[in-house]
Specification:
Distance between the termini: 41 Å
Number of helices: 9
Strand content: 5-15%
Oligomer: single chain
Helix content: 40-55%
Shape: globular
Strand order of the largest sheet: 1-2-3-4-5
Radius of gyration: 23 Å
Order of helices and strands: HHHHEHEHEEEHEEHH
């Protein structure tokens, strides 16, 4: 049974891999005006570009050996199974088509648990150090919207200290480590001589041409609309929450104390979707890109 299941799963992965390869080649041909839409585009109209091949069949074989997906009788392949297969396929492609020049990481629920920090004993630190020693650029891209280097140091102290120690031991020179916070609003670069080993990089030095078009008054207008939407959610669902407004973000945080209730997942999702829709329909939301999340 496991052998049959493995063969069928592998065939599915091979078929999807071929669909992606066909789609990629047709996208290139379309750019030259010489091809029709791919079969994958017809099946999934919203599909975009694939920037690298995905070795899905090989990645499935690798993960199946580790997770015994084909040996399960009652539990079908899960979201986590598929995510790990896709991750493995992407890594295989990057390594084979290298050298890798840039790797970016999210913070919460990627490098560390939600709301926690990157502690000294986190095993990912040595892997990131190895990439830095190979000359790879590392970016930590996080939604945390801090304007002070100290707060990013608090969240990432394990990695930052490890990089500093490697420099002191002459194991690493000129590490290319950058932190991009607040959903692409604040940039800090590793600086061995800087306070908390971080140096703030002014926006004018790194903004893309498209981002330079965003006006500050338009950004604040967008945040005003979002704040009103959040207040409506607090009132309508009787949330034990207060508004937290920052320079480039606005959100809700739970109130603490007797009688205060925690947010449920459903309440948070409703808040995000309501706010998203209100911003989508607003004039401000059409001028400045944004994201709504929990």
């Amino acid at each position: 049974m496991a052998t049959t299941a493995h063969r069928r799963y592998a065939e599915i992965m091979r078929d999807v891999e071929e669909l992606i390869n066909d789609h990629t080649s047709r996208v290139i041909q379309q750019n030259r005006g010489t091809s029709e839409r791919s079969k994958l585009k017809l099946l999934v109209p919203s599909v975009g570009k694939f920037f690298t091949p995905l070795a899905l069949e090989e990645a499935f074989n690798f993960q199946d050996e580790r997770r015994k997906i084909s040996s399960r009788r009652f539990v079908a392949p899960s979201f986590n199974d598929i995510r790990l297969i896709l991750n493995s396929a992407q890594l295989m492609s990057l390594v084979r088509n290298g050298p890798i020049r840039l790797v970016t990481f999210d913070g919460d629920v990627t490098l560390y648990d939600d709301g926690q920090s990157l502690a000294d004993d986190n095993p990912v630190i040595q892997r990131i150090l190895r990439l830095l020693k190979q000359g790879c650029h590392i970016g930590i891209v996080t939604a945390a919207g801090y304007t002070e280097g100290r707060k990013y140091y608090d969240r990432l102290h394990g990695l930052i200290n490890a990089v500093a120690n490697a420099i002191a031991a002459k194991e690493l020179e000129d590490p290319k480590l950058v932190i991009l916070g607040g959903e692409s609003n604040f940039m800090f670069q590793f600086d061995y001589m800087g306070q908390h080993f971080l140096k703030h990089i002014p926006r004018k030095d790194w903004l893309l041409p498209e981002m330079r078009k965003w006006q500050e008054e338009e950004i604040q207008e967008l945040l005003d609309v979002a704040e009103l939407a959040l207040k409506e959610c607090i009132d309508s669902m009787k949330l034990s929450a207060e508004i937290l407004r920052k320079e480039r973000a606005v959100g809700i945080i739970p109130l603490t104390g007797p009688g205060m209730q925690k947010f449920s997942r459903e309440q948070l999702e409703e808040t995000v979707l309501v706010t998203q829709q209100i911003l989508d329909l607003s004039i401000a939301g059409k001028r400045v890109p944004f994201c709504a999340f929990n």
